[in-house]
Amino acid sequence: MTKRPSKFIGTLYAFKFEGREAYGICTHEVIDGWGPRLGQLIRFFEGTAPEGARSAPDPETAPVMFWAFVDLRRFLRLGQAEHLADCGVPEHMQGTPRLRQGLPLLHYSEADPIFLTEGLGDDAVVVEDPVSEAEMAATPDLVVLDILGVSDCFRYGLTPERQYAIAHGTHVFDPVRDALF
């Protein structure tokens, strides 16, 4: 995890795509160390609004739909994100993140390793305690997204539980929402 203060952590952003806005808060950053520079960890809140509506949710109470790492500097430079407010990281989001890794994108088999890690960057450790199926499904994937990936997560309602169910073949598709999926 970053050892120096970051201007991004604790800041609320609007992410723009397809004439809509989604809102998220930067809670952590991985840009140094020996491991990959994942970028900024954004917790995206449920729902979108028409672009320019500025109906940003309250980070203290708004439900989080999913987490993802993004290259926030690039998003801001390209106009795909906009700084809304410096609000600080809510207390319930300050802890060490736990993320799911190893989840196959297209095909699942029992032999595929799926595991949880706690911490970020060089400080990440594999969780060795027993983990329930529900906890595994509810834990967000360690993923880096561009604006199209963020857009798809909102378009298809890709919460961690839904992504897990799709990968395991246990998801029941909604014929209207999932027509193009």
From TrEMBL:
Which branch of life, at top level?
Bacteria
> What protein name is recorded for this chain?
Uncharacterized protein
Organism name: Donghicola mangrovi
